[in-house]
Design brief:
Oligomer: single chain
Largest sheet: 6 strands, mixed
Radius of gyration: 21 Å
Order of helices and strands: EHEEHEEHEHEEHEEEEH
CATH class of the largest domain: Alpha Beta
CATH architecture of the largest domain: 3-Layer(bba) Sandwich
CATH superfamily of the largest domain: FAD/NAD(P)-binding domain
Shape: elongated
Length: 216
């Protein structure tokens, strides 16, 4: 590195998306020096650390869309990562329930989407089977989606950053560093923060709800 704040790549945002980008980029470019910038004092302090922790199956997305493709692929990769590095998770499955006959057409539509998206183990079940799986749910029919799960996303975020740092000693995670904008220039970009400037050849913005505003 030319200076302490000069890197090959900079990832802005220390939630699960930013940590995953950091991890994947470091694996793909093991010799690259990458910086992860997070404005809070710890990683995963916003949406990542305040959600229900669901590993989504990819059931609902339009077949062939990037959402469908990336959700299914990402689910497989996330579960594999959790198994390899001991991240707390449970592929517990879920039930999609039709409470009344009026909801059956929508259930069939969702079933069709799931089949087209090749959701493994997807099964059409009757009301008795729904109640067997979830005794507090009354339904006329349902879908059993065994590949849905839950995970500790805080732990996953931290572990992805740790694994990335272990691959390259000159990569860094900066917490308490808030990006406020950037300046593009020939051959690279300067990321402006309240704690000083960071320079890199490229930047990936993973700043959650602020990502589009920052990228502009």
């Amino acid at each position: 590195m030319a200076s302490p704040n000069t890197f090959d790549l900079i990832v802005v945002g220390g939630g699960i998306v930013g940590a995953a980008a950091f991890y994947k980029l470091q694996r793909r470019h093991p010799n690259a020096c990458i910086a992860l910038l997070e404005k809070e004092d710890i990683l995963s302090d916003h949406q990542t650390g305040h959600n229900s922790g669901v590993i989504h199956s990819g059931l609902y997305y339009p077949p062939g869309s990037l959402k469908a493709t990336n959700c299914v692929k990402g689910r497989h990769e996330l579960v594999a990562f959790a198994k390899e590095y001991g991240v707390d998770h449970d592929v517990c499955g879920k039930v999609v329930a039709a409470a009344t006959e009026d909801e059956l057409p929508m259930l069939e539509k969702i079933h069709g989407l799931g089949l087209q998206n090749e959701i493994e183990g997807l099964e059409r079940i009757d009301g008795d089977r729904v109640k067997e799986i979830e005794p507090h749910c009354s339904a006329v029919a349902g879908l059993w989606v065994p590949c849905t799960g839950i995970i500790d996303f805080r732990c996953a975020t931290t572990k992805m950053a740790e694994v990335a740092l272990a691959q390259q000693s000159e990569s860094r995670v900066f917490t308490g560093v808030e990006a406020t904008g950037f300046t593009q220039k020939e051959g690279g970009v300067t990321v402006h923060t309240k704690q000083g400037d960071f320079a890199a050849k490229g930047m990936v913005v993973c700043a959650g709800l602020q990502a589009d505003r920052l990228a502009r």
